[in-house]
Amino acid sequence: MSSDTNTKSLSMIVTKGSLDWAYPPFILATTAAAMGLNVTMFFTFYGLTLLKKKLDLKISTLGNPAMEMPMFGMHIGMPNLVSAVPGVDAAATAMMKNLIKKKGVASIEELRSMALEADVKMIACQMTMDLFEYTPDDMIQGPVLGGAATYIETATKSDINLFI
Amino acid sequence: MANQVLDAKGLNCPLPILRAKKALKDVPVGGTLQVIATDPGAVKDFEAFCRTTGNDLVESKADGKVFEFLIKRIS
Predict the structure, then answer these.
(1) A9-163, superfamily in CATH?
(2) Between 20 and 30 A from B43 (CA), which of A113, B8, B35, B58?
(3) Into how many domains does chain B fold?
């Protein structure tokens, strides 16, 4: 990674930990790093679970009124209501994972290790660790612990700051 | 002939870019990397990648559903 002062930088606050919401931050982080940017990701609230050693990411049709799945040559809507039916979210997750594999989309595990390889700086929110009773042992190696001030300091120096 | 060839067929965004970045490290400065991809989004993405990283997109062509890029490593 270049250390010259013209290097652009990107910071992101990652707040969501479902399979679908895990993609944007990791895709943007790995791509920005590949394009020579210094990248920092701050994982807070449900986003923190994306740093767990073992990921078991799921999607829910609840709160996703725009969700449609390609099935039988058409697009089937997934009404919020069906989320209450036992097995529906599990089926939607399985369907999504199948599509990911079929379409040559990287897994989150793959993107996460590529981000670490590319020196993406990861900050795990200390307060969220306490709140949800996680220990550093639950998490992968690499991220540092920090709080809001740690993130804000990074954000003041970054060219792009995103909240996801 | 390119110094190195990367087969990124069947890979989706952002994998062709990430693999290309990795492959470029093994190309000498002034040398070229040929990338073969099937992701239609790669056409615009390799243009943006090269502009931002300062590398030279020497060639970008489509043959049906297969796209070929020739990147010259500048930095």
Answers:
(1) DsrEFH-like (3.40.1260.10)
(2) A113
(3) 1
